[in-house]
Amino acid sequence: MRPPILFLTVAFAAGLYAGLDLFVARAAWYVVLPVVGAALLLARPAPLGAAVGIMAVAGMLWGKAAVQEREATCAGAWGRETGNGKRETVAAAVRLLDPVSSPGGVVDAEVLPGTCGGALRLRWPEDRPARGGTNWAVAGRWSSEGGPGLLVVRRVRALDPVPRGRGALRDALAARSTELFGARAAIVNALVFAPNARLDSDIRERYVRSGLAHLLSISGLHVGFIAAWLALILRKLPLAARARFAATAVLLLGYLWLLGFPAPAVRAGAMLTLAEVGRLRERVVAPRGVVALAALGVLLQDPWALESVGAWLSVAGVGAVIWAGRAFARAPRLARLAAPALAATLVTAPISALAFGTVAPIGVLANLIAIPLARVAVPGLVLALALSWLASGLAHPIAAGAGLGLALLDLVAQGAALVPGGHVVMVA
Which of 71, 100, 128 is the last residue of a domain? Predict the structure, then answer.
């Protein structure tokens, strides 16, 4: 029997989709009262059906609230004004969440209190390097085509050169990464803490063609690697099971905060927490129920994750892996190893083709080698960065070992990308 939370999450997501679409939401209001009335009538004879209806209405209300919240931000206001032709140049005071080098590039920022508020994505100009966590006055052209919007910055002026907050920590990590890893610092940043790390186009293309692009975007896989190593390290300490769980949860929460709570990472953190709570309470946990409850938590935390390709790939991939693991539990060892990667590739291929225009069947084989390498390399990178503050003498040899794993991972990507027919480019 499927866990009821699965149906409730699907209903909430359907209602949320309607709520996030203003045109659909206006029409959907005509069915709210009938649905609520039907749910009340079915509360006793069919409680699950009633709950599904209530969750759909709740999702629509949550989506409408998310739209209203976004409309009150700088991005929402500028989108309306530029769409109506009222403004061509916009300006705001922001705090950068990542450092920016001389070539410029895309960077995330938070609007400082006192203006319209919210988060912004900026295209920073060339030859104006800036530290993460510093405050700037920016002005430029707002473009809302093909997504939540982008401010193409034309003029900048420093307001506060002292790094603060999350951006300051990312800036410090970027500096340590450059010191420890040199030319590989950009890919280290992309794997550990910087979603917008500037990578050479040939590196990104190599990983896309090899079916390993998911490793370059911080996702649930990275959170799982780090959580597993945290559990292994904490198990060596004289702590009770609940104390280890609390310590792991706090550390993972801090890591999610550093990342900015992206939907795939939040989903993984929620799944790990729910599974551990079930184990501590000695309860049998249905994997589909855990995935559904984690997805519901993500939608509550970030309703716009419903429109995020990364969130869809994350949920679809983990669902496929769970199904394949259970379906092939008694199969020969080779089939057990290959089935999850094959299932994840097949399930996520339509999404990848639609969103990115590329499908890489070779990823089924490449991931069998790359994921075990990443399982060692990514925690090693994290440990080296952490030890650079605590014990710099240990940080360098660990960085060297993790760098070797990173080099092998890149070698796998290079080899897989060169396989004839290993990737297919979809032509519109």
Answer: 71
